[in-house]
Amino acid sequence: MALPAPPPARVFAELVPGQAPIPTPTPAGHGSPPALSGREVHVSGSAELSAGPDRARVSLRLGSRKGAAGAARSSVARRLEYIAQSVRQRGVPEENMTVTEDFSRLENTYQMEAEVCIVFSDFGKMQNVCNLLVEKLGTSVTISPPHFYHTPEAVDTLRRQVCVAAVGNTHRKAQEVCRLFGQSLGKPLLIREEETKEWGGHIDSHLSNSLDSLTLQERIQHATAYASCRVFAVFEIKGKENKRNKLL
């Protein structure tokens, strides 16, 4: 049976001799050899990074059904005030909390319903607030599982970080290649971002019902975003490596 063909070799670095320079005319009697043009090293490098979600949104639902309209409103209002007070006391800005109310009449009764959405940037505070409300309000409030997501600023930061990391890896690879041949790495002549990929994470999108059984840590992991970047770079080769720098 014939053996499978070996995979093609992957070139990650290439030493390229510079082109011969065009001689520059010099005055008579002052003919000096033209300076050698610089050589180049072509290198590709990549990096992959991840970032956990930086925001969590929690929804709370509460309601009351009474024979009198005022009683239904008052019951819900007291609990809303307690929720708002608990959130403020734990350092969550008021603008991170939104309240929607719905008042209706059903037969001979009045029904008041409210939904509170709270956005947390500190997941420890989120757990403390949710635990307190469950303890103090019990079944009179329904708390949905937290939804974790990334803000646009967090996504942009991840993209910048993975690109910078790829450039850094490419530079280190070029240094190692030059040292292998006893050369000294010079300045970059070209740095080009060739490919970027992003996957995972939920950018402010609701979780599906199939994920309701996940634990808190599993939800955070499920919302973690990943990004990779591949960079191509060309560096100048200055010449022989300085022995003193080599020892360092």
TrEMBL record:
This is IKBP1 protein. PANTHER family: INTERLEUKIN-1 RECEPTOR-ASSOCIATED KINASE 1-BINDING PROTEIN 1. InterPro entries: IRAK1BP1 (IPR030312), SIMPL/DUF541 (IPR007497). Its main location: cytoplasm. It holds the Pfam family SIMPL. One of its GO terms (biological process) is positive regulation of canonical NF-kappaB signal transduction. The lineage of its organism: Eukaryota, Metazoa, Chordata, Craniata, Vertebrata. It is found in: Cytoplasm; Nucleus. Keywords: Cytoplasm, Nucleus. One of its GO terms (cellular component) is nucleus. Belongs to the IRAK1BP1 family. Residues 18-52 are annotated as: Disordered. The keyword ATP-binding does not apply.
